[in-house]
Amino acid sequence: xxxxGPSHPHHASQPGAGPVAPSSWPYASxxxxxxxxxxxxxxxxxxxxxxxxxxPARAGRSASVWLFGILGFVLIVLTGYFIxxxxxxxxxxxxxxxxxxxxxxxxxxxxxxxWEPEPKSLIAFAICWGxxxxxxxxxxxxxxxxxxxxxxxxxxxxVIQAPVVEELAKGLGIFLVFLIGRRxxxxxxxxxxxxxxxGGGFAFTENIQYFAISLIEGGGxxxxxxxxxxxxxxxxxxxxxxxxxxxxMGLAARRHGTRTAVLRAxxxxxxxxxxxxxxxNGSTIFADFMWLYVTLQVPLFIGFILAIVALRKExxxxxxxxxxxxxxxxxxxxxxxxxxxxxxxxxxxxxxxASLRGDRRMLMKQFIKDATALAxxxxxxxxxxxxxxxxxxxxxxxxxxxxxxxxxxx
Length: 410
What we know:
Layout: H1 65-86, H2 88-112, H3 120-149, H4 154-180, H5 188-233, H6 237-255, H7 259-286, H8 289-328, H9 334-341, H10 343-355, H11 361-383, H12 389-408
């Protein structure tokens, strides 16, 4: 019933009733009547923002700004050298073209690193080390050898000197990542990620030089051929070489975690990287490159991918095993462990979160990220190589509990 109005608004049209004078109708028109019932405002969707929560310690998981400052100074020197040696136009064109294979490598590494993403500062440091420091070391050693013997043997340099010096310089970068970010260096996949990023960064700067020289010496046709060969046919070459060193270091980091063990394993890995690098360079000089590329290099790359897939499965198994221990203590349900520790479970969880009011996929992604980090923390605690593991464990347990509550809130 409307306040001040008739109890039956449709009485004017009742049979036998005459027309109602406009002045007797309390409203301008029946459509202008106030509603008999005003529905309440819809309940606001739960906010995706979580309250302030503890965060794991950053110590041992990030690169110092001072390291980036040193690399920045070296970058200025390298930039001046490239402009002096190759010219600003050729260097600029080489830089633009070199971004293509770098993007391909970076996208490939992101696919590898999706299970447990590495800290952004360590990712940036790895790329910068390869693109700046490893290149600078290689150039300095090359200059020293040239001055010492008074000449530069191209074949000897390509097959022996370059693989040895470059892989040592890149391997040093992986070891530095382990030293400054050892609490984020949890296993072989992490080592492959950092190794591939350092190798991709090295190839980026090296490609600038190769593309610029090709343009200067042979024009557009020579540049195109070089770009296809280095930028499209073999963008992962350096990444694969250095990833082998990273794999060896990561394996030692998971099993032992000591600097000596990682350095010893890295030495074996870098020898393998040198051999692969030397064989790659030698195939362009002493053999039919295209034949070897199809019959050997492509199968090697496929084997590299299959190895990463196997390592990803092992990483998922470890995550599931560690989270299963928390489930036994009541922190997770068995169904949650399956959702958090399997690719299909994560996909199903994200679809379910998207169906909730307000689309809570961001909360689910945070839940997955924190639970995965929790499993990694427990793995480090089991090996006894992380003194901050207990504090991180408590912070991540609080975070996962709060995120679950937000996901289930109505």
